[in-house]
Amino acid sequence: MAKYVAIIGAGISGLPAIKQCLDSDLIPICFEQNSFIGGLWRYEDISEKNKEPYSTMYKGILTNTSKEMSTYSDFPIPADWPTYLNHSYVEKYIDMYAENFNLLPHIKFNTTVLKVSILPDKRWKVQYIIQTENKEKEEIFDFVMVCSGHHRKPKLPEFKGMNLFKGKQLHSYKYKRAIDFENKRVLVVGAGNSAMDIAVELTHVASQVYISIRSGKLPWITPRFLKGKTRDHINRFSAYIIPPSIRGKIKENSIIKSFLIPSHLKLPTDPLIATLPTINSEIFQCLAAGTIIVKPNIKELKSENNQIEFVDGTILENIDVVIYSTGYYIDYPFLEKHIYTGGDEIEQMYEKDFHDVVWLYRSIFPPKYPHIAFIGVALGAGAFLPISEMQTRYVTGLIKGSIKPLPSQNEMEISIRKYYENIRKNLCKSARSGIRLSYLPYMDALSKEVGCYPHPYEIFKKFGFNFWKLFMFGMATPIQYRLLGKDSWEGAKDAISLYNKFSFKNSIRGSRSYKSWIYILIVLLILLNRNGGFKKLINVYWKIFNK
Ligand SMILES: Cc1cc2nc3c(=O)[nH]c(=O)nc-3n(C[C@H](O)[C@H](O)[C@H](O)COP(=O)(O)OP(=O)(O)OC[C@H]3O[C@@H](n4cnc5c(N)ncnc54)[C@H](O)[C@@H]3O)c2cc1C
Ligand SMILES: NC(=O)c1ccc[n+]([C@@H]2O[C@H](COP(=O)([O-])OP(=O)(O)OC[C@H]3O[C@@H](n4cnc5c(N)ncnc54)[C@H](OP(=O)(O)O)[C@@H]3O)[C@@H](O)[C@H]2O)c1
């Protein structure tokens, strides 16, 4: 009998969920509280309307992941679009995707899910309200996919005197356009992508911009392009052959060598790979020009002269606006919290280090409730779209029963504990560390389960040496997961070649750096050979290829 799947949300996670259900002969019903698809990418200018925003997007946003790495695997973002997209391009792409796969008929618009509860037979009751009719209803489903996003509940800091301060205070989720802050003295709080983006935008209109960083030192900041490549350009060769610590050091050096950072500013002390870098191309110019001035954490806000005092004792006067760009809570108000946090005991064990604890096997399944899946609860070097898409391929395969079932509850718990211990060992403490993923290993692991892993040897056999070179040394675009196996796509090879053609054309260093990798490999092999290591290496590869 066909299974019914409830999908909550029609953003970039919900849409592939619908598509994968249809591909797997499951029956998807998607609930979307808005009257449109696209989730937070659908920008609306609310400045003149006195209402709560449904989206955190601001007018000047530019994606921080390249289109080549951000595309759905079977529907490439047009190769001639810009590398980094403004929200209007993302909206257009999402509309094209939904239309191409005829997804809209499966969405109930203007419908908010109020409560999702488990039934004794392990199915789920979904209670919802149709806003346009003001009518509450409920339906029963075999499976639920939660695709409602985790940038909806703003995190506001608590500082002394916030209630006394006479200037304007807002969270970044309400920030829409720089022009609203013309000639103002603005303090932006935070050092993540929202904070840096907003601070840079404001320098064009505000009379002075300050940025308060609670750690007192700059985070690692990566520009969108580094050494002629997009900052998220990864290739399989370096991802698997070069240890992450060395890759991190190479990147650190390129950043340090590319920018002059004013000497009075404190630089990051943790290694780049242990942190979540902020992505911004213009901030260094602003720091050098003094259009953005860095301050440490806030001590107190005062009513007198709109003063703000910082922990180092310095005081700013006449601050008109404070924009708290301090992130979001992971929150699913329609679910009992223990379902995705694992309950009080687990929360207490981990919340000191991670703030936002989610207890999900492979960042998707609560071990106790394997009939509900969370899509897009991830943060890593890669883009959200392909991660969400791969997760939905994995989940629908499991619902359909066409792939290896999930391990036991105990095994899933052990796996999550290992995940957190690994993060504790290797990453800095941060609210955002708890949902960190390493893009390529994560995608490859899921693709092996799904049955679409692009095995290098198989790629070589099927497509020949020239394409294999591109596959190994070109960018590891998600389209690679449509080359072989389940739901492979005829156009994948050409689409990958086209993306790499554009990318290499744009990169003056492209072919040179590719050749240098070959030279490094040859030198490494020669060195290894001196101690019989070459033979050992061949044996290891032989085992991997024949797995
Ligand atoms: C400012 C900003 C910029 C970003 N830039 C990038 C980027 O460049 N690259 C990248 O990869 N990622 C980026 N991200 C991460 C971003 O979260 C993802 O790109 C993506 O939008 C997440 O999609 P989603 O579908 O999971 O969630 P959302 O886009 O939040 O969509 C969730 C949907 O669920 C609906 N919904 C929620 N609750 C209910 C309910 N109870 N009932 C019914 N419907 C509900 C919402 O209306 C919404 O349509 C950015 C995030 C932010 C905040
Ligand atoms: N252009 C883009 O594509 C773009 C733009 C904006 C946002 N985004 C995405 O949207 C998501 C959210 O980004 P975000 O920047 O809004 O949030 P974020 O990544 O969670 O960053 C929050 C920042 O606020 C700081 N902070 C948190 N609590 C604080 C407190 N109490 N006092 C002082 N500082 C505090 C954090 O400091 P610590 O580091 O010390 O915790 C961090 O620097 C991310 O996935 C991001 O990549 C993308």
From TrEMBL:
Keyword terms: Endoplasmic reticulum, FAD, Flavoprotein, Membrane, Monooxygenase, NADP, Oxidoreductase, Transmembrane, Transmembrane helix
Q: What is its main location?
A: endoplasmic reticulum
Sum up the protein's function in the record's words. Answer: Broad spectrum monooxygenase that catalyzes the oxygenation of a wide variety of nitrogen- and sulfur-containing compounds including xenobiotics. Catalyzes the S-oxygenation of hypotaurine to produce taurine, an organic osmolyte involved in cell volume regulation as well as a variety of cytoprotective and developmental processes.
Q: Record's superkingdom? A: Eukaryota
Its placement in the membrane is given as: Single-pass membrane protein
- Cite the Gene3D superfamilies for this sequence: FAD/NAD(P)-binding domain (3.50.50.60)
Q: Which cofactor does it need?
A: FAD
Look at the named UniProt entry and state the broad enzyme category this protein falls under. Answer: oxidoreductase
The yes or no answer to whether the keyword Endoplasmic reticulum is present is yes
Q: What is this protein called?
A: Flavin-containing monooxygenase 1
Catalysed conversion reaction: N,N-dimethylaniline + NADPH + O2 + H(+) = N,N-dimethylaniline N-oxide + NADP(+) + H2O; hypotaurine + NADH + O2 + H(+) = taurine + NAD(+) + H2O; trimethylamine + NADPH + O2 = trimethylamine N-oxide + NADP(+) + H2O; hypotaurine + NADPH + O2 + H(+) = taurine + NADP(+) + H2O
* A cellular component annotation (GO) from this entry: endoplasmic reticulum membrane
Q: Which InterPro entries match?
A: FAD/NAD-bd_sf, Flavin_mOase, Flavin_mOase-like, FMO-like
Q: List, alphabetically, the PANTHER family matched.
A: DIMETHYLANILINE MONOOXYGENASE (PTHR23023)
UniProt GO molecular function: flavin adenine dinucleotide binding; N,N-dimethylaniline monooxygenase activity; NADP binding; trimethylamine monooxygenase activity
- What transmembrane ranges does the database entry give? 516-533
Q: What compartments host this protein?
A: Endoplasmic reticulum membrane
Annotated family: Belongs to the FMO family.
So what EC number does this one have?
1.14.13.148
